[in-house]
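Box 4.2: Ligand-aware structure prediction
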Amino acid sequence: MKKQDVLKKGKAKTVYSTDDADKLILHFRNDTSAFDGEKIEQLARKGMVNNRFNAFIMQTLEKAGIPTQFEKLLSDDEVLVKKLDMIPVECVVRNIAAGSIVRRLGVKDGMELNPPTFEFFLKNDALHDPMINEYHIRSFNWATDAEVVRMKELTFRINDILSKLFKDAGLLLVDYKLEFGRYRGEIILGDEFSPDGCRLWDARSREKLDKDRFRQGLGGVVEAYEEVARRLGIDLA
Ligand code: ADP
Ligand code: UDP
């Protein structure tokens, strides 16, 4: 598979076209950003860790019947994926209150959410990814009602699969963000699943093992991601 042009340089990944019109290469860079790109740093090994982490999670989800973009790992920091027509919304599920919901609703940090809650955000850094609802998605034609139903269904199924996976590794899946796209008439999981886009706490100590370490300047960011990978049995080479 030949890498061709840069289609997009995002905050953490670069997207390349390939000689197959249906496939893209995602290059996971070491760039780490927070606060809609206001804080940016290079963290050694992060691209490799997230690429391998994401590949493991996507393959686990495929095995459990979730349609994903994943085709194959190409190198330490590159993966071949299906080229999706991305839907510009972020799907967030929360099992425990943390981050923006605590600030917005004044609820207690660390409070268990039973049932888990669901939020949509518009993918737009300039507007700071505002929270939106299903009516916005419909009125502005970001997705159809059927696509909204499917994204929610897949996001909750993924919660069941991954909450158990992390629980068995002594971790709490606090919340996470997913992005979906269209491929041959189907809704498929795109982008990535890594500690950059979710919150993971040690089940006993509640120590943060995700991107909050970077947001809050706690240090040991990539080391924490590697610890999670180790507990899941992911080979980081
Ligand atoms: P951001 O867009 O937040 O800066 P990234 O650096 O991760 O994030 O950029 C990756 C870009 O590639 C995003 O715009 C994402 O929506 C897009 N993307 C991810 N997976 C796919 C895919 N399978 N097909 C097409 N576009 C994708
Ligand atoms: N998230 C993300 N990208 C975004 C916004 C959020 O990956 O642009 C993830 C974030 O890492 C967390 C979850 O989505 O796991 C919920 O994020 P929240 O709304 O609490 O925002 P935050 O306070 O993290 O900015």
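In the box above, the bound molecule is uridine-5'-diphosphate. The radius of gyration is 17 Å.
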